[in-house]
Design goal:
The protein is an alpha/beta fold. It contains 10 helices and 8 strands. Strands 2-1-3-8-7-4-5-6 form an 8-stranded parallel sheet, sandwiched between helices. Helix 1 links the parallel strand 1 and strand 2. It starts with 8 loop residues before the first strand and ends in a 5-residue tail after the last helix. The mean pLDDT is 96.
Length: 382
């Protein structure tokens, strides 16, 4: 039985989530979460009586093992304690995306725990939607190795707690990078529908996410990928979303919706090539929340995002949508964690594309949509 809902949304956060440093020059900077939280405070969003603010906890070893091999988990534990694992490269840890660092186990376990808390709040009926902004960026982490800044795949761990109790979950990933780790976790089950809209692997890590990756065995038809070309902007991105995500989620009829809200789709992001604005991103969040309102609840996590100003503004705007709260038009003048921010919306946005480039980008998107419909819609009765 659901508990009475006294809040419209929950935010799961504490400052400890922002303190881990992967390496001195690493593009993934958890301090972005502190910048975000300060903007939420400055804008008055955290003063809303409708918003529940919850503390995270560290995921237990048993919870992490729901989605990861014991040898891998133990290797991360040893490395995080300052020890040496001779074969750490086999576990995806080494120079580059996933450098060994003191405290990496504790940091990843706390992120996974924050997403578990969000999931528990929604599952119990305490809130209709809960946001774990520290989560989601681990969506590349695999069963037995780290990948793409991800160590413990918090989304997969949390979804498994629902699936293991018989619930059906739709996972929608709007990060610029393909959500390959979550897809791999549920590639052979029909209990989880994974949908990823992303920049095509032709141009971006991890190189996967073609329409042809549709699942296997019992999961055939339950992995959906919609690759897009560089320079895709708001209007086209939202059109692609509307033609693919609502029909498939509606046909699947999940018990819970799980959404990954990476903002590395932003036109100023230094690592990627899509060209969304904060207002385009927020419109996507609004449409996802409408989908979530038709099931038992929505769990939201963060994801990629390497422009500090875009992260702070976009996830503040996302939480405002979840809490049905208003924001001022302008970024408060007293906010100085990220200098130079004037408005929550992007003014101006990206430059209009040259006609020939825009045509190629649109054709690429249309081909992806047509292929998704031809490959998967009949399987879902569409």
């Amino acid at each position: 039985m659901k508990t009475e809902q006294l809040h419209t949304a929950a935010l799961v956060y504490e400052d400890q989530l922002s303190r881990h440093v992967l390496s001195p020059n690493h593009p993934m900077r958890p301090v972005r979460l502190r910048h975000m939280h300060r903007l939420m405070q400055a804008s008055g969003l955290l003063d809303s009586v409708d918003l529940l603010q919850a503390d995270p906890r560290a995921a237990t070893t048993d919870e992490i093992l729901l989605n990861h091999h014991r040898d891998y988990v133990e290797a991360v534990r040893v490395i995080g304690s300052g020890g040496i694992v001779p074969n750490m490269f086999e576990f995806g840890i080494g120079p580059g995306d996933n450098p060994p660092s003191e405290g990496m186990y504790d940091a990843a376990a706390l992120v996974a725990g924050s997403t578990l808390v969000a999931t528990e709040l929604v599952r119990s009926g305490t809130v209709p939607v809960a946001f774990s902004p520290a989560g989601g960026v681990h969506h590349h982490a695999m069963f037995d190795r780290a990948s793409g800044f991800g160590v413990f795949n918090d989304a997969s761990i949390a979804i498994r707690t629902l699936v293991n109790d018989g619930f059906r979950v739709a996972y929608v990933d709007i990060d610029c990078h393909h959500g390959d780790g979550v897809q791999a976790s549920f590639y052979d089950t029909s209990q989880v529908l994974t949908i990823s809209l992303h920049e095509s692997g032709q141009w971006l890590f991890p190189g996967s996410g073609s329409v042809g990756e549709i699942g296997q065995g019992d999961g055939e038809g339950f992995s959906v990928n919609v690759p897009l070309a560089p320079y895709t902007q708001d209007e086209l991105w939202l059109r692609v979303f509307d033609e693919t995500v609502p029909p498939l989620v509606g046909a699947f009829d999940p018990d819970f919706l799980f959404i990954q809200l990476g903002i590395d789709t932003h036109f100023r992001d230094p690592l990627t090539h899509l060209q969304l604005t904060t207002q385009g991103f927020t419109e996507a969040v609004r449409r996802l929340l409408e989908l979530g309102a038709t099931c038992n609840g929505t769990v939201a996590v963060g994801g990629g995002g390497y422009d500090m100003g875009a992260v702070a503004r976009a996830w503040t705007m996302a939480l405002a949508e979840m809490a049905s709260a208003g924001l001022p038009e302008s970024v408060p003048t007293e906010y100085d964690a990220v200098p130079g921010l004037d408005y929550f919306e992007d003014r101006p946005g990206p430059a209009q594309l040259p006609e020939d480039v825009g045509h190629e980008v649109e054709q690429f998107a249309e081909r992806s949509v047509e292929e998704v419909k031809a490959t998967l819609f009949d399987r879902h009765g569409l």
